[in-house]
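Bumping with the actual sequence this time:
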Amino acid sequence: MRISKMRVTSYATSCVCIGMRITVTAMALEHAILVSLAERSASGYDLARRFDASIGNFWKASHQQIYKVLGRMESDKLVESHLVAQDGRPDKRVYAITTEGSAELAAFTSTPTSPEVLRSDLAVKLRALPFGDRDAIVASVRQRQADHQAKLAGYRASVERFYPDPAQVPAEQLGAWLVLRGGIRAEEGGIAWCQEILEALGQSTGEGP
């Protein structure tokens, strides 16, 4: 099944890039699910948890969206499922990528990547600096800096947990490692940008990356 024939879920999501928020529309949740299932089969619940813990850092989706799209993907034969018995608990349905799903994912990687549309409320506020509340803008910058620092701490914790030796990343984990590195660099860039803003406004900059 080719991408042009694939029914996709379009919605807006956001990620951090150099201290701003990137809003991306018309993206296929199906492909993010295929990537996750290609890495490891999972129940709908476990898949939703992966989105909360890792994939959600660059691709937002609610649990309801994930369950709804999984059902449609099974109808389209991109994934298949089977019931797994559990002691003392109801059976759980585990999903796996199919041959058709693998082909769809491979086809997706060969398509051009569209430019990401940048929308930043903080940037607009900075442009409004001569006309607005300077102290409130400074407070917004400090909060953004704190957000970046918290996110960076989470990424670095993931490095320590999953990649104790970054020089020896297994080939099958290289893609995930590079995404994690992209997140780290984006948060470091965001922190540096906030520091630059605060210095330009004559404020103390707090901690760096």
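The tokens above came from a reply further down the thread. The first helix runs from residue 29 to 39.
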